[in-house]
C-alpha cells in the first residue's frame, strides 16, 4: 500500500487513549446493532485517500496530530489545564475545531448541502440548456448528483480557531462507574441555553450559548462553553453521578455517524441501553433548510432567502450537575461580532490568495 494512502479522519493516537492494548478498541456498530470487543484501530475512521490523493495533506495532518498527542497526554497526566499557556490553550481550541471539521460526518454534511443547492438550480440549468438548443431531457439532469465536494468544512475548521477564543475551557474528570465514550464524530457542538427557544439549529461556531464536548479518554473530557450563558463552579470538575455521564455520552450517540467506541467491553449494555432510550432523537439528515423569504425583482428575476443550519436535537442538558444557565435575556445570535467579521475577512483573503498559508 502506498504510504499515507489510508487516511484517518479520527487519528489513531486518539483511539489509543481509549484502548487497553493500543491495537484494538471496543465498538458498537449502530446500523448493525453489533458490539465488537476487539476492532482493529488501524481500520477505524479511515478510508483510502479520504482527503486527497495528494498524500502531502496526510503528512501535514500527521504532524499536527503528533503535536496534539503530546499536549493531550500532558493534560491527562496533569489532570488539569492550568500548566498550559494562553497560547497553548488557543492551539488546543483550534485542534478541537480542526477535528470537528475533518470527519466523514462533516464531509457528508457538506455533500448533502451541495446537492440540495444543486437541486434548486436544476430547473434553470434545464431551461437554459433547452433555450440554447441542447439535446437534453429532464431526467438526465434530475439524476445528477455531486459526489465529491471541495472539503470546504475542513478549510473553515482550519482557519476559524479564532472564533473559539472567547469560549472558556475546563476539564471534566469522570469518577463515576460509567466511562466516557466517543463516536466517529467525537467533537460535539450543542447549545442547551437556546435548545428549546428556536426551531432551527443553534450550534454554529460563532453562536451565542455554544457548548463543545470533547472526550480525551474514558476518564477525562474537555468542555468549552460561552461564559455569558453558563455558570461553572471551577475550572476542574469531578463528576461522580452516573446520570451525568450517561447524559454526556448521549451526545456522542446523537451525533454519531455509524460507530460508538469505548474502552471496557462491559460497558456495551449501558451503551445499547442509552442508544435505545434516545434513538428517536437522532436526526435523519445532516442539514435543515428553510426558505425565509421570497421576492420578485423589478427586472423579473425571482429570489429566495435560504437558511441552512444543523438539525435541531431536542435533548435536555439542564439536569447536568456541574453547570447552570445564567439569567440572560439577549436573543440568539453571534457571540462576538468583531471576531466574526475579522475571521470572515481572513477567510476571504485566503480564498482570494491574498494571504498564503504556510506549507
Instruction: Work out the count of structural domains.
Output: 1
Poorly predicted spans: none
- Beta fraction: 15-25%
* 3D shape: globular
- In spatial order, strands of the major sheet run 7-8-9-5-11
Alpha-beta content class: alpha+beta
Q: How helix-rich are the residues, as a percent range?
A: 25-40%
Give the total of beta strands. 15
Kindly report how far apart the N and C termini lie.
25 Å
Rg calculated over all Cα atoms: 22 Å
* Number of helices in the DSSP assignment: 9
Mean pLDDT: 89
What order do the SSEs take from the amino end to the carboxyl end, as H and E? EHEEEHHHHHEEEEEEEHEHEEEH
Largest sheet, described in full?
A: 5 strands, mixed
Can you walk me through this structure?
This protein has helices at 12-16, 56-78, 86-101, 104-131, 138-142, 152-159, 242-254, 268-278, 337-351, and strands spanning 6-8, 24-29, 34-40, 46-48, 168-174, 182-183, 188-190, 211-215, 220-225, 230-232, 236-239, 259-262, 288-296, 302-309, 323-325. The strands form five sheets. Strands 7-8-9-5-11 form a five-stranded mixed beta sheet, with helices on both faces. It has a four-stranded antiparallel beta sheet with strand order 3-2-12-6, with helices on one face. The chain has one domain (14-108, 147-351). It is an alpha+beta fold. The radius of gyration is 22 Å and the shape is globular.
Amino acid at each position: 500500500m502506498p504510504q499515507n494512502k489510508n487516511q484517518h479522519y479520527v487519528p489513531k493516537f486518539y483511539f489509543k487513549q481509549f484502548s487497553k492494548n493500543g491495537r484494538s478498541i471496543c465498538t458498537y456498530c449502530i446500523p448493525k446493532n453489533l458490539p465488537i470487543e476487539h476492532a482493529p484501530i488501524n481500520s477505524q475512521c479511515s478510508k483510502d485517500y479520504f482527503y486527497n490523493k495528494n498524500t502531502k495533506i496526510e503528512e501535514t495532518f500527521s504532524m499536527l496530530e503528533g503535536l496534539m498527542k503530546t499536549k493531550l497526554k500532558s493534560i491527562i497526566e496533569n489532570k488539569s489545564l492550568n500548566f498550559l499557556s494562553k497560547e497553548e490553550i488557543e492551539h488546543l481550541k483550534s485542534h478541537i475545531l480542526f477535528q470537528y471539521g475533518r470527519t466523514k460526518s462533516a464531509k457528508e454534511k457538506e455533500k448533502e448541502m451541495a446537492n440540495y443547492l444543486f437541486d434548486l438550480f436544476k430547473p434553470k440549468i434545464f431551461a437554459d440548456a433547452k433555450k440554447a438548443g441542447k439535446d437534453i431531457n429532464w431526467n438526465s439532469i434530475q439524476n445528477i448528483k455531486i459526489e465529491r465536494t471541495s472539503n470546504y468544512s475542513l478549510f473553515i475548521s482550519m482557519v476559524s480557531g479564532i472564533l473559539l477564543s472567547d469560549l472558556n475551557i475546563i476539564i471534566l474528570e469522570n469518577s463515576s462507574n460509567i466511562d466516557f465514550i466517543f463516536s466517529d464524530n467525537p467533537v460535539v457542538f450543542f447549545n442547551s441555553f437556546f435548545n428549546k427557544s428556536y426551531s432551527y439549529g443553534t450550534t454554529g461556531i460563532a453562536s451565542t450559548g455554544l457548548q463543545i464536548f470533547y472526550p480525551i479518554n474514558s476518564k477525562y473530557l474537555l468542555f468549552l462553553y460561552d461564559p455569558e450563558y453558563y455558570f461553572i463552579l471551577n475550572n476542574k470538575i469531578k463528576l461522580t453521578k452516573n446520570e451525568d455521564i450517561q447524559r454526556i455520552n448521549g451526545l456522542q450517540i446523537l451525533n454519531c455517524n455509524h460507530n460508538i467506541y469505548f474502552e471496557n467491553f462491559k460497558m456495551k449494555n449501558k451503551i445499547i441501553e442509552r442508544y435505545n432510550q434516545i434513538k428517536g432523537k437522532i436526526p435523519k439528515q445532516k442539514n435543515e433548510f428553510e426558505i425565509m423569504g421570497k421576492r420578485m425583482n423589478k427586472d423579473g428575476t425571482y429570489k429566495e432567502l435560504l437558511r441552512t443550519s444543523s438539525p435541531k436535537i431536542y435533548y435536555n442538558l439542564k439536569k447536568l450537575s456541574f453547570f447552570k444557565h445564567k439569567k440572560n435575556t439577549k436573543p440568539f445570535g453571534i457571540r462576538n461580532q468583531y471576531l466574526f467579521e475579522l475571521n470572515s475577512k481572513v477567510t476571504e483573503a485566503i480564498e482570494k490568495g491574498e494571504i498564503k498559508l504556510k506549507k
